[in-house]
Design goal:
This protein is of the alpha+beta class. It has a domain of about 230 residues: FAD/NAD(P)-binding domain. It is about 35% helix and about 30% strand. It has 11 helices and 19 strands. Strands 1, 2, 8, 9, 10, 11, 17 and 18 form an 8-stranded mixed beta sheet that branches. The longest helix has 28 residues. Bound molecules: flavin-adenine dinucleotide and 3,4-dihydroxybenzoic acid.
Length: about 400
């Protein structure tokens, strides 16, 4: 007999792992197929900021033990422009919402450990080649594991395999619409063994380009610089990176950027991308497989978590009642939040970065918008609500 599961999950990143956790807890059986090995997945440097609702779901699914001990709670961010700085106080502006600094690598480690301990099967090194039969009631996942070609039949397949995954291809051309914007700049991200030079994140607009000061722990800083697309990390010796960061964060007044050994560096292109709908037949897409945001504003991981919360609820409802009603609403429910996050991430990106094709006029519009956020509680609250995150609908 062919191996079979209720929900076949392609991809063991944050979306796939959290979905598996939520399904397992509501008694829905599933299998996760992840192409990479465990160590690779656990060390891939990515997101750092968790919204309130992401933390809430990790807590309610029993996956927040270490997070609650080790994560840093942040009640605001700093915006810098024209050599001055302005703090946004999230709880005051949002009625109590805040964010957590806890790296994606740690979320993934915690979810993998739980799944191996008492969860659904999780297969590393399982390269999914294709998903077939989206329009039948028995979709099939074809994958290669330990040099052997295998199949898994499913009641449903969920593609949590990121932007470059294969599940999206199971949908016939024309049945799905995509929206896309590519940005004319990238981020150069570093990790440095030096205590953060700030208590909260700093987003800096400067004529030299955007810079972001984030952190991973009280000992490790995470910093990003806007650079042209195609930038080679070899052209940036450590000294040049620190000098450029210094210039972009500079304010009138006392503040010093501490320097330390750089332990990781990478250039990341930026893109907005949405797939509509996020379901076709018995194949559903979640997280980066369905949508991408540019990183400014830290929405990607949080959107992935929000998708799978909606999806897990829909599968639990199907199991309890036999009704597909919530699964049918899945795409529309998620897309409302997705488009809000797309707009916010685009807004943060285009307000804070220097577009090489833009004029001084555009730069003045940016600083005028930042002045407005500093002057108006309404404008500040709009940013804070989006940043700290909306309730999961
Ligand atoms: P992924 O993390 O991409 O996981 C997909 C998984 O599928 C991977 O493990 C991959 O190996 C696997 N896979 C792919 N193809 C196959 C296949 N054929 N067969 C089997 N498995 C497959 N978001 C935030 O919310 N906050 C932040 O602060 C933030 N900062 C970021 C900073 C950077 C530098 C970057 C790059 C991203 C950042 N993001 C942030 C975005 C966030 O990292 C992503 O949105 C998040 O990883 C999406 O999770 P996912 O599980 O949907 O996809
Ligand atoms: C981080 C990434 C982001 O995109 C962001 O807006 C804030 C923080 C980070 O990696 O720490």
């Amino acid at each position: 007999m062919q191996p079979h599961t209720t929900v076949g999950i392609v991809g063991g990143g944050p979306a796939g792992l959290l979905l598996a956790r939520l399904l397992h807890r509501s008694g829905v059986d599933c299998v996760v197929l992840e192409s990479r090995e465990r160590a690779y997945v656990e060390h891939r440097q990515r997101a750092g900021i968790l919204e309130q609702s992401t933390v809430d779901v990790l807590r309610s699914s029993g996956a927040a033990g270490r997070l609650d001990r080790e994560a840093m709670v942040h009640d605001g961010i700093e915006l810098r422009w024209n050599r001055h700085t302005h703090r946004l106080d999230f709880p005051a502006l949002t009625g109590g919402r805040r964010v957590w600094v806890y790296a994606q690598t740690e979320v993934v480690k915690d979810l993998i450990a739980l799944q191996i301990e008492d969860g659904a099967p999780l297969v590393f090194g399982a390269q999914v080649r294709a998903v077939e039969g989206a329009d039948t009631d028995r979709p099939v996942i074809h994958y290669t594991h330990e040099d052997r070609d295998k199949t898994l039949t499913c009641d449903y397949v969920v593609g949590c395999d990121g932007f470059h995954g294969v599940t999206r291809r199971a949908v016939p051309r024309g049945a799905i619409r995509t929206y896309e914007r590519v940005y004319p700049y990238s981020w150069f991200g570093i990790l440095a063994d030096v205590p953060p030079s700030c208590d909260e994140l700093i987003y800096a607009h400067s004529p030299r380009g955007f810079a972001l000061h984030s952190m991973r722990s009280p000992e490790v800083s995470r910093l990003y610089l806007q650079v042209p697309n195609g930038t080679d990390t070899d052209d940036w010796p450590d000294e040049r990176i620190w000098d450029e960061l210094d210039a972009r964060f500079a304010i009138d007044g006392d503040w010093k950027l501490e320097r330390g050994p750089i332990t990781a560096r990478a250039v990341l292109p930026m893109r907005s991308f949405v797939t509509e709908p996020m379901r076709w037949g018995r194949v559903l897409l979640a997280g980066d497989a369905a949508h991408i945001v540019p990183p400014t504003g830290a929405k990607g991981l949080n959107l992935a978590a929000a998708d799978v919360v909606v999806l897990a609820r829909a599968f639990a409802h199907l199991r309890a009642t036999g009704s597909e009603e919530l699964l049918e609403a899945y795409s529309a429910t998620c897309l409302r939040r997705v488009w809000r996050a797309e707009h916010f991430s685009w807004f943060m990106t285009t307000t804070l970065h220097t577009d090489p094709a833009h004029s001084d006029f555009d730069a003045r519009l940016q600083t005028s918008q930042l002045d407005r956020i500093a002057a108006s509680r309404h404008a500040a609250a709009e940013l804070a609500e989006n940043y700290a995150g909306l309730e999961i609908g």
